[in-house]
Amino acid sequence: MHPWKTSSVPDVGKFLYRHVHSLHHKSYNPTAFSGTSMHPVESTLYYSACLIAVPFGCHPTVVLACIFDCAVGAWLGHDGFQMPGNCDYFHQLHHAHFDCNYGASPVPIDKWLGTYIGDKSDLSKVWGKKAAGADVSETPVHQGPVSETNVDKVGGAKTDAGVKTKKRSASPAPAAHKEE
Predict the structure, then answer these.
(1) Is the Cα torsion angle 48, 112, 128, 134 positive or negative in sign?
(2) Same domain, yes or no, for 65 and 126?
(3) How far is CA 84 from the centre of its chain?
(4) Residue 39 half-sphere exposure, CB side, CA atoms within 13 Å?
(5) Which of 89, 130, 132, 135 is most exposed by smallest CB count within 10 Å?
(6) 3: number of Cβ within 10 Å
(7) Exposure pattern of 131-166 as b/e (b: 16+ CB <10 Å)?
(8) Is the pLDDT of residue 121 over 80?
(9) Quick one: average pLDDT of 70-80?
């Protein structure tokens, strides 16, 4: 296929991020309620996924339990509390950096696709065990509001030089941000 042919194909992911999911990522340092802070389109799709079970004859309470689980799961996934076995820490890194740790923690898809950040000392934060020289109570926070200067139009984090990075330390470095 010719290069002009592939470049004329719209990137649906960019469009959806910019116009729908970016609202959720305005929570650069998320709290429990950031989990359900969504664009109406995203919220409709998120909760209507529970209706997939209806054609299979499931009892309505199964659908209601699924909706309840989606809400509580979103709250717990963004609450910032670290309980043993809970990988909220890696999701906090996702909100701080935007271009990493997309998948669920038990599935190693981020490692396979090169979008995982974190190391063994970070795993100690997940399981509550102190690794050599690691502070288990330490949590990642983004130091200020996200602006055009530190995030590109698609949502990828930039360094001070404006170049996207793949490999970085797990804890985001404080950066100077301007209020707009």
Answers:
(1) negative
(2) no
(3) 20
(4) 14
(5) 132
(6) 7
(7) eeebeeeebbbbeeebeeebbeeebebbeeeeeeee
(8) no
(9) 83
For Cα atoms 21, 41, 90, give the angle at the middle one, nearest 5 degrees: 30
135 forms bridges with which residues in the sheet? none
Does pTM top 0.70 for this prediction? no
Pair (42, 91) in one structural domain = no
* Exposure b/e, 92-104, CB count within 10 A at least 16 = b: bbbbbbbbbbebe
**143 & 101 share domain:** yes
Looking at the fold, whether 65 and 93 belong to one and the same domain comes out as: no
- Structurally, the chain folds into a number of domains equal to 2
pLDDT tens, 23-66? Answer: 888 887 788 888 888 999 999 999 998 999 899 999 999 999 99
Task: Kindly state the tokens that stand for 34.
Answer: 């950031």
Domain range for 137 is 84-173
Q: Using CA atoms, how far apart are residues 143 and 23, in angstroms rounded to an integer?
A: 18
Two structure tokens written together for 89: 């820490």
Q: What is the residue whose two structure tokens read 């909100």?
A: 95
- The whole-angstrom separation of Cα 104 and Cα 74 is 12
**Which among 58, 66, 118 has a CA at the least distance from the CA of 88?**
118
- Per the domain annotation, does 43 fall within a domain? yes
Q: Can you tell me whether residue 25 is helix, strand or coil?
A: helix
